[in-house]
What we know:
- By secondary structure, the chain is mainly α.
- It contains 4 helices and no strands.
- Helix 2 runs antiparallel to helix 3 and helix 3 (28-36) runs antiparallel to helix 4 (46-64).
Amino acid sequence: xxxxxxxxxxxxxxxxxxxxxxxxxxxxxxxxxxxxxxxxxxxxxxxxxxxxxxxxxxxxxxxxxxxxxxx
Length: 71
């Protein structure tokens, strides 16, 4: 799962965990919103990893809506 290697406990318990649950339950929009809550406060490499998952959510949402133009 995406949490492998993540260390900041507050992130895993807070927005990280909420986002994971939303993502695993097929709700990438809410996962994106949860992860947006605090990813910028993370240190590397976790910050880049969470940013990538936020982008994955965006790709899923755009593909579901068949929106292929850049955001």
